[in-house]
Amino acid sequence: MDPWEHDEPMAVRRAADGRLYFAATDVTGMLRDIARAIAVHARDGDLTWTGDGRGPVSLDASTMLTVARILTTQADRMDVQLITIAGE
Cβ–Cβ contacts within 10 Å for residue 60, how many? Predict the structure, then answer.
């Protein structure tokens, strides 16, 4: 299975003012999914990225794992804020 694939689409809601919203838990889940996928690629040695029609760009495992930790930390902080708001 490709660690970047996500089978369940995130539900998008439209507010009365026309703005689009995602559920906060979907956003934190997405951040964690991306972090896990990045960490898997770093640990497996899949350290290249190709985008915008260019050739592969080399990435280092340490940087990839740091990005994964940052995304997980951001998701954790968002969850704390959500728990706080829900308790009000």
Answer: 10
> How far is C-alpha 21 from the geometric centre of its chain's CA atoms?
17
DSSP assignment of 24-66 equals HHHHHHHHHHHHHHHHHHHHHT--EE--TTPPPEE--HHHHHH
Write down the domain spans for the chain.
25-86
How would you write the pLDDT of the chain (88 residues) with one tens digit per residue?
444 455 667 788 899 999 998 888 889 999 999 999 999 988 888 777 777 777 888 888 999 999 999 999 999 999 999 999 988 8
User: What are the residues whose beta carbons fall under 8 Å from the beta carbon of 49, sequence distance 6 or more?
Assistant: 56, 57, 59
Confirm whether pTM is higher than 0.85. Answer: no
Instruction: State both tokens at 41.
Output: 């690629």
